[in-house]
């Protein structure tokens, strides 16, 4: 029966005179086992578990919080209050309003939004009503809120806890209940002004929180995609090469190049060309240089991104924050999510032992966030397409600027 | 016979697990089931979850709602007032997770347990959303072996109320609890709780209010001396509790006809529960021939006397009434109980049964905005050694307060602002974005709350309109001529009066700040 490629489950439960035998046909006779069939098997097993008395009828005084969650004692609350006051003060200084959403959403609201990470969503038990799930981030609720209320323009912050059933074996110190602190500007506006204000806000917050020196790295998805194109990366390898480039914050170039060539099948020539670009850092001057670059300038996409970077830096100069902002071509975070500018703030002083913040910075876990990262975000014009039917009457596709952030 | 055989074969990966049958092992364990379930769920995730259903149902879950910016602004004001009062009295705060282990909540809420939201068994611990803040508090104290603490906790709790029964009741709602835990001299912390309720309700400006006070021992003693059989105490008590909604005749009818009490006993109860007063009433009852027969009642009455002596020093006796008909939540409380009600009908009330922080056996009259009492036995339930930590506390009916404030705001001419922007930086002509951004940076760097439109060349009218919509009081207008002259026009949006200022940071800031 146990042949390669074949899959079957047989579950029989015999308890208290009740016997049910279910057999699911093997893969090679059906297109494949369906989700519904898995649901059925799981339900039977869980019913059996409940009959056994849940947690084996234990009635001890188990004085603990759920795995991955913790209480905040008064000292921690005092610190938390200070941090929130600083951050909220900054948001308010920039004219943001705030909203709040319920801790759980209809399951269907969250379905299909998180890809592989969907398995990390906490579901509520089906108790005979609507199917519900705990919110996984604050962005999907935000999108729902905008669509429900037919809002096209808003500048809002939202600080609240979100829930992810992370596997604690993988990562030390990662909580399943944790705060997210999001700031987003939604609406159709002239290019780069709200984007620049987001960076001004990050700069203000990090300065006021007094965490030591920091840098805000900036890049643009169109520049990365354009760069890959002119370096000869095949279209279908953009994403995977991108996640390799993203490892540059943790690994040296030699290892990153090795992965590109040996594992991802890129030509050594293409890898070397990429290597030249991704080592570049600078300001407006770098953007200007690249616009003149013989190779890069062949990509219309890259040129659009570079022009926007130039414009961005002109605003950043007026905002007096260019001292900490770097245009860095190796920044490749969360590219699935973002459509334009991307940015990430890192603390430059090692100082405190960092808690891994992978995937707790508010975007799907494909993005890798370097150790020391305290904020990240970018422009994501496409997310709203999901709600297009509710917004179609407006005619324009709203564009967004965003700064998701983890507070730990 | 019981057996599970699960084999998974995908992408060349094969795992076969077999669990031996029940009659050869003591039995399949929960851990083994968890393992199988985890494998199946992983497989499901690989297959892509919910059969690819991709609907967009734009609604919140039943019984829950978003808070829009206006509601958040009102909410913030209310919290600031309440928290300010707690802090004035030296309280610290804690926070607990939104879900607890199911077993932590088991056996704590009686019949109401059916209203608890459980999380789906996804192969790990069984979890439930918190039903109130008191059980998590008791767990926190026991876990950390804390015997003394004065803490407030404002957070949302979750109850699967049946919406058919009650209109407007939310399933996710705020609770605002304040508790003093610890062994202390009698009635001092109890009196401080009442002082805090008095302060909060006065500052929130909800109109006139009364705080009714009673004591479980007095009620139990009263039933005893009136001839109520011991086993009927609780049920008679919930009938007495209906006096805030029903007239005495109906309450008496229920006692006699439904609960089987003698008419004589009912009449005796009727005499007592119509009594209201202050320290004087407590003194009178201590002399009362019948009542004084109950040691329990006397203990309660002495404490009421002591309480009122402290309340006099706290200057709050004007609003506090010793009321023998108050019978809220007796399962929970072991001594003093109290409830604050708004006396002005004014606003159409939302029923707040069971949303004031105690199990729903307590009935809370319409208009009730806070409730609490002394509950000495709860923490001991969590401690493995049964160590007692006496507690007294109050829960503010904050959703009720929100709803009253929202209605007040609606009725008032004044708009509720959703932002705190002080100055709009505007331009009268084109091509002035650079100058505006320079000016706003000076303002931000100096801590002034300011906004600018995200347009290179906005019309002055649109900018002014935005000020009016948002309630921004001042607008700094840049113009070509003014720039040449080195000045900025600062206009008061409401009156349109203008001041011409030298364009330097200090003069602008001074004007903005005054």
UniProtKB/TrEMBL annotation, chain A:
Which segment of the chain is annotated as a signal peptide? none
Q: Which Gene3D superfamilies match?
A: Bira Bifunctional Protein, Domain 2 (3.30.930.10)
Domain Aminoacyl-transfer RNA synthetases class-II family profile intervals: 39-286
Q: Which InterPro entries match?
A: aa-tRNA-synth_II (IPR006195), aa-tRNA-synth_II/BPL/LPL (IPR045864), HisRS-like_core (IPR041715)
**Which BP terms in the Gene Ontology apply to this protein?**
histidyl-tRNA aminoacylation; mitochondrial translation
Q: Which UniProt keywords apply?
A: Aminoacyl-tRNA synthetase, ATP-binding, Ligase, Nucleotide-binding, Protein biosynthesis
| Catalysed reactions, semicolon-separated | tRNA(His) + L-histidine + ATP = L-histidyl-tRNA(His) + AMP + diphosphate + H(+)
Its cellular-component GO annotations read: cytosol; mitochondrion
| Superkingdom, natural source | Eukaryota
Question: What Gene Ontology molecular function terms does this protein carry?
Answer: ATP binding; histidine-tRNA ligase activity; identical protein binding; RNA binding
Q: What is its EC number?
A: 6.1.1.21
Entry's PANTHER family? HISTIDINE--TRNA LIGASE, HISTIDYL-TRNA SYNTHETASE
Similarity annotation: Belongs to the class-II aminoacyl-tRNA synthetase family.
Protein name listed in UniProt: histidine--tRNA ligase
- Source species, please? Dicentrarchus labrax (European seabass)
From TrEMBL, chain B:
Gene3D superfamilies membership: Anticodon-binding domain, Bira Bifunctional Protein, Domain 2
Catalytic activity as recorded in UniProt: tRNA(His) + L-histidine + ATP = L-histidyl-tRNA(His) + AMP + diphosphate + H(+)
Q: Which residues bind L-histidine?
A: 132-134, 159, 175, 179, 328, 332-333
Annotated EC:
6.1.1.21
Q: Which GO terms describe its molecular function?
A: ATP binding; histidine-tRNA ligase activity; identical protein binding; RNA binding
Respond yes or no to whether keyword Metal-binding is given for this record. no
Instruction: Name the source's superkingdom.
Output: Eukaryota
Which UniProt key words apply to this protein?
A: Aminoacyl-tRNA synthetase, ATP-binding, Ligase, Nucleotide-binding, Protein biosynthesis
Gene Ontology cellular-component terms for this entry are: cytosol; mitochondrion
UniProt cross-references to InterPro entries, sorted A to Z: aa-tRNA-synth_II, aa-tRNA-synth_II/BPL/LPL, Anticodon-bd, Anticodon-bd_dom_sf, His-tRNA-ligase, HisRS-like_core, HisRS/HisZ, HisRS_anticodon
**Hey, which family's this protein in?**
Belongs to the class-II aminoacyl-tRNA synthetase family.
Q: What is this protein called?
A: histidine--tRNA ligase
């Amino acid at each position: 029966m146990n042949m390669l490629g074949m899959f079957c489950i047989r579950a029989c439960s015999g308890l208290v005179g009740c016997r049910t035998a279910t057999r699911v046909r093997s893969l090679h006779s059906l297109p494949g086992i369906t989700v519904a069939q898995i649901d059925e098997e799981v339900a039977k097993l869980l019913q059996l578990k409940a009959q056994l008395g849940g947690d084996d009828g234990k009635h001890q005084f188990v004085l603990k919080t759920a795995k991955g969650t913790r209480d905040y004692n008064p000292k921690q609350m005092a610190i938390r209050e200070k941090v929130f006051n600083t951050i909220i003060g900054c948001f308010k200084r920039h004219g943001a309003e705030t909203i709040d959403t319920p801790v759980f959403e209809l399951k269907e609201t969250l379905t299909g939004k998180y890809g592989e990470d969907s398995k990390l969503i906490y579901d509520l038990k089906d108790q005979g009503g609507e199917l519900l799930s705990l919110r996984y981030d604050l962005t999907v609720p935000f999108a729902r809120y905008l669509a429900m209320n037919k809002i096209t323009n808003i500048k809002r912050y939202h600080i609240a806890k979100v829930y992810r059933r992370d596997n604690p074996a993988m990562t030390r110190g990662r909580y399943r209940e944790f705060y997210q602190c999001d700031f987003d500007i939604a609406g159709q506006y002239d290019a780069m002004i709200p984007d620049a204000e987001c960076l001004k806000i990050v700069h203000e917050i990090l300065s006021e929180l007094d965490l030591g020196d920091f840098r805000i790295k900036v890049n643009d998805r169109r520049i990365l995609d354009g760069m890959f194109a002119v370096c000869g990366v095949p279209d279908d390898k953009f994403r995977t090469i991108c996640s390799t480039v993203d490892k540059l914050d943790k690994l040296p170039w030699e290892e990153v190049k090795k992965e590109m060539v040996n594992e991802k099948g890129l030509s050594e020539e293409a890898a070397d060309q990429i290597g030249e670009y991704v080592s570049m850092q600078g300001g407006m001057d770098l953007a200007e240089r690249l616009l003149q670059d013989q190779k890069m300038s062949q990509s219309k996409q890259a040129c659009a991104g570079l022009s926007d970077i130039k414009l961005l830096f002109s605003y950043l100069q007026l905002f007096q924050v260019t001292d900490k902002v770097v245009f860095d071509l190796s920044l490749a975070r969360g590219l699935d999510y973002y459509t334009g500018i991307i940015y990430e703030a890192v603390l430059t002083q090692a100082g405190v032992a960092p808690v891994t913040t992978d995937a707790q910075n508010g975007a799907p876990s494909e993005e890798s966030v370097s150790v020391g990262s305290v904020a990240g975000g970018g422009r994501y014009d496409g997310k709203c397409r999901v709600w297009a039917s509710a917004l179609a009457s407006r005619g324009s596709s709203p564009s967004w600027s965003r700064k998701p952030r983890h507070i730990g | 016979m019981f057996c599970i055989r699960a084999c998974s074969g995908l992408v060349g990966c094969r795992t076969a697990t077999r669990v031996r049958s029940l009659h050869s092992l003591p039995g399949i364990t929960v851990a083994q089931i968890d393992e199988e379930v985890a494998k199946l769920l992983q497989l499901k995730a690989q297959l892509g979850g919910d059969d690819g259903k991709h609907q967009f149902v734009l609604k919140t879950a039943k019984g829950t709602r978003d808070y829009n910016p206006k509601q958040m602004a009102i909410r913030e004001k209310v919290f600031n007032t309440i928290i300010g009062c707690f802090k004035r009295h030296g309280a610290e705060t804690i926070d607990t997770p939104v879900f607890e282990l199911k077993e932590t909540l088991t056996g704590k809420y009686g019949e109401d347990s059916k209203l608890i939201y459980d999380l789906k068994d996804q192969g790990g611990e069984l979890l439930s959303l918190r039903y109130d803040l008191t059980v998590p508090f008791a767990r926190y104290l026991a876990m950390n072996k804390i015997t003394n603490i004065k803490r407030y906790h404002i957070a949302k709790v979750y109850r699967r109320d049946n919406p058919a029964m009650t209109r407007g009741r939310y399933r996710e709602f705020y609770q605002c609890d304040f508790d003093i835990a610890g062994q202390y001299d009698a009635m001092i912390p109890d009196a401080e709780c009442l002082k805090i309720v008095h302060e909060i309700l006065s500052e929130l400006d909800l109109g006139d209010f009364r705080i009714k006070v009673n004591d479980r021992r007095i009620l139990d003693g009263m039933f005893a001396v009136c001839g109520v059989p011991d086993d009927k105490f609780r049920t008679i008590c919930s009938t007495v509790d209906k006096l805030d909604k029903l007239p005495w005749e109906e309450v008496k009818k229920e006692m006699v006809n439904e609960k089987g009490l003698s008419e004589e006993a009912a009449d005796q109860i009727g005499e007592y529960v119509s009594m209201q007063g202050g320290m004087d009433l407590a003194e009178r009852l201590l002399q009362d021939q019948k009542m004084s027969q109950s040691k329990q009642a006397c203990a309660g009455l002495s404490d009421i006397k002591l309480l009122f002596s402290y309340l006099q020093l706290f200057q709050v006796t004007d609003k506090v009434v010793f009321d023998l008909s108050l019978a809220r939540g007796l399962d929970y409380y072991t001594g003093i109980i109290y409830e604050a009600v708004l006396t002005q009908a004014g606003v159409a009330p939302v029923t707040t049964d069971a949303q004031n922080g105690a199990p729903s056996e307590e009935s809370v009259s319409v208009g009730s905005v806070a409730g609490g009492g002394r509950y000495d036995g709860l923490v001991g339930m969590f401690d493995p050694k049964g160590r007692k930590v006496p507690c007294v506390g109050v829960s503010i009916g904050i959703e009720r307060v929100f709803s009253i404030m929202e209605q007040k705001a609606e009725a008032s001419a004044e708009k509720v602002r959703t932002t705190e922007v002080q100055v709009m930086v505007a331009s009268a002509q084109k091509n002035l974005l650079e100058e505006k951004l320079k000016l706003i940076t000076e303002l931000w760097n100096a801590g002034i709350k300011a906004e600018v439109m995200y347009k290179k060349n906005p019309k002055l009218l649109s900018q002014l309109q935005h000020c009016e919509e948002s309630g921004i009081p001042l607008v700094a207008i840049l113009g070509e001529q003014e720039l040449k002259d080195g000045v900025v026009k600062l206009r008061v949006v409401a009156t349109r009066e203008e001041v011409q200022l030298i364009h330097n940071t200090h003069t602008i800031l001074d004007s903005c700040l005054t």
